[in-house]
Amino acid sequence: MVVDKKIKVYVGMSGGVDSSLAAALLVEQGYEVTGVYMKNWTADLPGMKCPWADDLADAKRVAVQLGIDFKVFDFENEYKHKVVDYMIAEYKNGHTPNPDIMCNQEVKFKLFLDAALEDGADMIATGHYARVEHSDGDSPITSSSLLHAGLNQGPGALLNLDSRVSDEITSKSPLQTGVLKQAVDKNKDQTYFLYRVTGEAMSKTLFPVGELTKPQVRKMADERGLTTAVKKDSQGICFIGQIGIRDFLSLYVDAKPGEIIDKKSGKVLGRHDGAIFYTFGQRHGMDLGGGMPYYVVGKDMDKNEVYVTTDLNDDTLWKKTISLTDLHWINQAPVDGKYEIRVRHRAPLVWAVVSSGDNNTLKLSLNNPERAIAPGQSVVIYDGDTCLGGGIII
Amino acid sequence: MKCEIIYLDHAAATPMDARVLTAMQPYFIDNFYNPSSPYLPAVSVKRDYENAKHVIAQQIGGKIGEIIITAGATESINLAFSGVSGHVITSNVEHDSVLACAKHHENTVVAADNHGLVTVDVIKSAIKPDTQLVSIALANNELGTIQPIRDIAEVIKTERNNRLQLGDKTPIYLHCDASQGACQLDINVARLGFDMLTLNAGKIYGPKQVGLLWAASHVHLQPQIVGGGQENGIRSGTENVAGTIGFARALELVGEHRKYESKRLAKLRDILQTTLSDAFEYAIVSGHKKHRLAGHLHISFPGLDGERLIFLLEKRGVLVATGSACAANKGTRSHVLTAIGLGPEAADGSIRISLGHLSTPENTETAGKIMIEEIKNEYKRVGQ
Q1: The CATH number of domain B18-254, selected from 3.40.1080.10, 3.40.980.10, 3.40.640.10, 3.20.20.70
Q2: Measured between alpha carbons, how far is B359 from B142 in angstroms, rounded to an integer?
Q3: Contact B311 A54 (CB under 8 A)
Q4: Which residue out of B74, B307, B318, B377 would a mutagenesis test of the A interface target, given it has the greatest number of A Cβ atoms within 10 Å?
Q5: Sheet (strand A123-125) strand order
Q6: Domain B6-15+258-381 classified CATH 3.90.1150.10?
Q7: pLDDT per residue as tens digits for the range A75-134
Q8: Which residue from A61, A64, B56, B192 has the fewest beta carbons nearer than 10 Å?
Q9: Nearest-CA residue of chain B relative to A68?
Q10: Cα B188 vs. chain centroid, distance in angstroms?
Q11: Which of A238, A275, A296, A352 is catalytic?
């Protein structure tokens, strides 16, 4: 079948193997592909070699190898404002935020998408391990059929979603939308980080490696001679680089030493170097004597106090009910009922009864208590393979 | 299919000469002793080390006691700046290591002209009563422009004499980083009139992470690495015996071939330059027309992306650079190209070609053909 005009896809290339293969697959599938390196903000540490230049070079080298156009989108200011400042502010509030979720919400699937469309793209793609289902009325269409159909006849109609999903959105004007689904590789699935994207963004997004497992991705990248095939996966938060979160936060937050208090006895056990560095449920890093490990079960940011316990069965450490705020749904909010949820990236899915609470909150009741449910972190809700969205733990 | 590599980046690194490796080899396994140990085999190693430094001293026309072996040129430059406390002068086309050192002092960064040349006049007018150091490279690493260092040395000498006559004891030194150009230019400290000289073995077919600072006896350096008091107490740490012996051998070898090699490379470079300039009429060659290192060719293709060109050429086995390797790594435009007023369009489309021992008439010609093909394709791709 002859396509009049090729669909233009802008693929975010980070210089890693996943986005490299994503770009290669899109080229093979017949899209008109442009590689884009998103220049995000990085901590400028005096005298240190710039950490992102090598990644940019790797991405560009693969683009040259594939014979595609390559651009750099500079999101440094926006990224600093939307992701980094948010993260620092959340830590200051005593929370443990997730900058990757914020990055996807604000940068990759908003700024990048808008900039790409503005620049002439029809769709964007990334190397995330996730799948998206673009719907054309009743039947979900795959990326290859989308390719042949051309965008004009593409997604436009509303989804015929699961009947359990409320229909509050149907009253709005018809939106293009896409459904976010878990990756085939359950071990690598990144939908936890993607739950705050919009259905509209998904309607214009492709995840070319979502159907593959990581070993397959490496093998296929190697078969295509991509120079990033053997590159190590990045670790941790990208903009912090090698220095670690503690050193990073110390640059921005005036952390003061304070007391570590045994929650049960109220006894002062020792000193910490700043309450912001401690996360709920975390095994305490400091030697408090006595041999038994201590777990953080609370913080008072005003008093700069950290509360710990040796009792692994402490009832604040285990939660059977979770309240979520700042809810976000990719398409429709779930109706009350039983769903699978994920409380952190790569955590196994667990069942919960979901019911709406007051003031736009959501209550989750678990069968079995979950450990270390930290305020500020996200819980993501699934209906089968479909990622519905989620919220922030109160 | 693996294609033959044509290496055109001798300004970044040079392959070690096999004769240098042969000279170094006995000092890894057989003669491994610590030169400071008291027994005879170690004493013998110490002697070999001293002999190597003696050879180095001969090659640069200095005295053995004035040479401090360092781990490369950057350390040497840092050490050179340690000797002064007052105002320093450098230029806006200097290497990052010089500019970074200058920042720790009150400094004046003079502007090179649009060929990358630092004229005597700008140095003269930048000298203040408390100026203690002028640091200018022998030749620019990106453009290959050779600086009028002997004339600059005269300016410093005059200033020093004036101060002496006035009874002003403020010292003023000339430091010259000759990392680039040592293969092709005179580096005799007496003839050129330096007070300090930096050399880098890794750029003259010797081992990497070996360099030196030569400092005339009247220069007072501050040790940057303290400990056992080696290198006259200026640079502690067990001597790099193999590296220094390799360094000496490498200097000897470039000394022998300097004149011949300069002529040979200039010829190859000129042919390549003509080939590329003829093929692309908008190509811009930067650097001084006459005072330029023989193997250097800095050329810009406006509208293209230099880094993309590197990856395209790399696929064909041709290895070139975008300006200085460090600047490319920072993902920012080269400060040298900005300094000489090259517009962003041209600067971004720049590559640096530097010929050397691995260059032959045949492979240089082949490289020229490949470059023309790839550059034409790129111009086609971007629609120009």
Answers
A1: 3.40.640.10
A2: 19
A3: no
A4: B307
A5: A69-74, A32-39, A8-12, A123-125, A205-206
A6: yes
A7: 989 999 999 999 899 888 888 888 899 999 999 999 999 999 999 999 999 999 999 999
A8: B192
A9: B381
A10: 15
A11: A238
